[in-house]
Amino acid sequence: MSEYPQRRGPVKATYIEYKDINLEKIDVHSKNEKKLVLKNKSKKAVVLNAVSASCSCLSFKFKKNIIPPNDSISVMVYFTPETQRGYFSKIIFITLNNGKNYITPYIYGIIDNMNN
Predict the structure, then answer these.
(1) What pTM was estimated for this model as a whole?
(2) Ordered DSSP codes for 75-113
(3) Mean pLDDT of 5-26
(4) Can you list the domains of the chain with their CATH numbers?
């Protein structure tokens, strides 16, 4: 028996390249959409299983869920601010390869009441 326990659960995927989403300054009443590009830097296809967030202010849409080797796909990210104003940061949780791997891009910016 090993001295170290085997790691259980998903492992962060280091072979997917992405950039966090900076919405900069947005209006509290606005609806925002940005494209999140996921690039597969590995030699095997990657399956995108699920995209979720801890906030109902975020929703997602993607057409393909297989990322071929050295290729990329886009996930559309839709953000509708809640009533808060000021700096915000939310984590997007993306599950890959039937739950074996994940990535956690951020979406962030400043919410302001620009119509006043």
Answers:
(1) 0.86
(2) EEEEE---S--EEEEEEEEEEEGGGTEEE--EEEEEEE-
(3) 83
(4) 11-112 (2.60.40.10)
